[in-house]
Amino acid sequence: MRLLGRTGLRVTPVGIGLAALGRPAYITLGREEDLGGDRSVAAMRARSWAVLDAARAAGVRYFDVARSYGRAEEFLAGWLRERAIPPGAVTVGSKWGYAYVGDWRMDADRHEVKELSAGRLRRQLDESRALLGEYLSLYQIHSATVESGVLDDEDVLTELRAAGIPVGLSTTGPRQADTIDRAIELGLFDTVQATWNLLARSAGPALARAHEAGLGVIVKEGVANGRLTARTAPPALATAARERGLTPDALALAAILAQPWAGVVLSGAASVDQLHSNLTAAHIGWDEELDERLTVLAEDPQTYWATRGSLKWQ
């Protein structure tokens, strides 16, 4: 266990994100093979609970959800209460800003709609609290950007100050660093959740600045929506993993855990086997030679985010 920045919240190096488990469709590669044809609410709840049980047994104590992750908050809340887990024994972070509109359909025209307004913050915070109650430990803006203006919206900032729990933001897009630096400047936020992986390294210096300023750093998309797993791993990563008797996803997550600013890294596992593979990362050594060898994987931010934006909901 470790403290997450200045929040006073205790987390484990690897946490669980339920983006891929709370709704039938998502932008993870290989999802058809992972989930099969049965993506009913009952099937997805059972799958979520199986992953959560395995995570708890492995010692994981940080759980990440969002209002837009379909029924993720509901699944997590039900599991926490069914397993009689005391609120203080885990740390739960959720996010507001997107609304899930997919109606549990694979072929929905739109799966989520973004609105970073004070009104939506109030509504969604009430909804999150209705489900998670005193388990809710951290509330974050979902996919904040400098372009959205949310970090200059005094109504939103006032509502966040009044939330009564630690608050943070998640970032997205090629200008993540600008968003992180603006958040540091405001002095309001306790955490930042950002994308960093072997393909997308550009936010690293800004995350180091956030860490130095006392913010807890949560890293998402550590395997780049499946691009850094065994199915589609770039040759350099696949070879390095094979030489060490590891899976590419574990090595990719180990790269994140090696960063001195990383507080908790999210596993987006959709199965117990994937979770166990991800958790191996906590026991892998990382060195300068390996880092230099895999630096070639880094993509230009515009290229990385354009590729991510082209991924289909599966």
What does this structure look like?
By secondary structure, the chain is of the alpha/beta class. It has a single domain (2-298), classed as TIM Barrel. It contains 12 helices and 12 strands. An 8-stranded parallel barrel has the order 3-4-5-8-9-10-11-12, surrounded by 5 helices. A two-stranded antiparallel sheet has the order 1-2. Strands 6-7 form a two-stranded antiparallel sheet. α4 (118-132) runs parallel beside α5 and α6 (176-186) packs parallel to α7. It is globular. The mean pLDDT is 97. Residues 48-288 form the NADP-dependent oxidoreductase domain. This is Aldo/keto reductase. It comes from Nonomuraea marmarensis.
Compute the number of strand runs.
12
Query: What is the chain-wise order of helices and strands?
Result: EEEHHEHEEEHEHEHEHEHHEHHH
Mean pLDDT: 97
The major sheet is characterized as: 8 strands, parallel, barrel
Protein name: Aldo/keto reductase
Organism: Nonomuraea marmarensis
Gist of the model:
Residues 48-288 form the NADP-dependent oxidoreductase domain. This protein is of the alpha/beta class and 314 residues long. Helix content is 38%, strand content 16%.
